[in-house]
Structure formats: structure tokens, C-alpha cells
Structure to design on (112 residues):
């Protein structure tokens, strides 16, 4: 037993509707593939994370609060990338090393 209509006009109408639906699905697939390619390209083109971070305190003129290893999960949103020299200088100026990622150990910095 079939669910299709028995007469030719309704079969042709159904065929047209299915062709339109198939084209809509193919268009959606193409759009999804394009978005995925763009997403992958964005990931590939993303610059590498900085090796060192300096976390700023709240307030415009407040001093930094921590030095972090790049990618530290404890680095706050106010963290900015820094060079190795800037991270070492911050440590020598008394800015605390993050107790989680221990940038002082990574940098080979011995207090004193």
C-alpha cells in the first residue's frame, strides 16, 4: 500500500514540491559547509596566545596585580599579553606571581 496519490496531476505537484524542498535542503547544506569552513579558517588564523600575561587591577590607574604564564586559567579578563622581559621586570618590581601557574618558576626568577 502506498501513500502517494494515484492521479498524475497530484503526483506532478508532489514531484515539484519535493524538488523545491530538496533544493532548499541543498542550499542549507551549502551554507552550513561555508560556515564550518570559515570557522575552521578562523581557528587556523587565530594568533597564538601570548607566552606571558600581566593582569591589571580594577581601576584606571591601579597597578597590576599578577603575572601569569600565557593560557593560565586563573588570568582575569583584564590580562594583557607581555614579553618575557616585561614579565620579568614586573616580577622584579614587586608584582606577585600567580600562585597557580607560577610564572616566576617558568621564567627562572629567584627573588632577591
Amino acid at each position: 500500500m502506498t501513500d502517494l496519490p494515484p492521479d498524475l496531476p497530484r503526483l506532478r505537484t508532489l514531484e515539484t514540491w519535493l524538488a523545491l524542498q530538496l533544493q532548499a535542503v541543498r542550499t542549507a547544506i551549502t551554507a552550513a559547509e561555508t560556515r564550518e569552513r570559515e570557522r575552521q579558517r578562523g581557528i587556523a588564523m587565530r594568533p597564538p596566545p601570548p607566552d606571558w600575561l600581566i593582569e591589571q587591577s580594577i581601576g584606571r590607574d591601579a597597578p597590576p596585580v599578577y603575572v601569569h604564564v600565557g593560557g593560565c586559567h586563573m588570568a582575569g579578563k583584564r590580562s594583557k599579553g607581555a614579553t618575557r622581559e616585561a614579565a620579568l621586570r614586573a616580577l622584579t618590581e614587586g608584582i606577585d606571581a600567580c600562585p597557580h601557574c607560577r610564572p616566576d618558576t617558568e621564567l627562572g626568577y629567584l627573588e632577591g
Remarks:
- The beta strands are 52-56, 64-69, 79-82, 96-97.
- The radius of gyration is 29 Å.
- The helical segments are 8-45, 84-92, 103-107.
